[in-house]
Amino acid sequence: MDELTFRRTIYADPNTQDPDVIKAAMDDPSKQAFWDEVKALDAQMVQAMNIPVPENFAEKLILRQGMDEFTQRRQKRPWYVAMAASVAMFAGIGYMTLLAGDNGLANDVFAHVSHEYMEKEIMMSGAGVSNDKINEKMATFNGKLSEEIGDVVSANYCYLDKIKSLHMIIKGEKGLISLFIVPDNESKELKEDFSKDDLVGSSFLLESAKIIIVGDDKSEVAKLQQTAKAAFTF
Q1: Any stretches that span the bilayer, and where are they (predicted)?
Q2: Whole-model pTM above 0.70?
Q3: Which domain range does residue 138 map to?
């Protein structure tokens, strides 16, 4: 697939499951990186649109209704119109982040560990991820994976509260676990332990990077945390 067709398809539908697009991304790291960034931006916009609107605030309600209409029409638009709409929505992300309160980074983490999001990430990654592939992406964070951390089924860049991060999905004994690598100087606000609904998370500093682990089983999260402390270097 040529570069122009690839980009047009991604702009029109960042979460496309077109086999030709998936193959082109797997064969070309630059295409994969471009797709990761567009998909991450799209996820930020979706999260922004899902922020609950405070009661008795008509202006915010009107804004929310407009965003819902945008979501319904987005897939029907030509690629160049979809791209223009995405740029316009990106300009509003800063405002919507303010509405989210002080937990922007944690909220983004939870948005990226939804089953729907992870299924698409796993499908895009193909048949598992090798340590060599992980280390190619780790170079962005001046880090290295020197030991096995488990069955990694996906490893892609994403954006957490506008911070470029690496999101790995690991198959545990009781389900999927997410591990994020974030530059430490941009993740000060995140607590060491946090939770939402049935999900539990932990974060810890490892030299110049913050490691964030989230899953639905506390014991597996704790086990992966200990493994990660020995497996990663920065």
Answers
A1: 79-100
A2: no
A3: 105-233
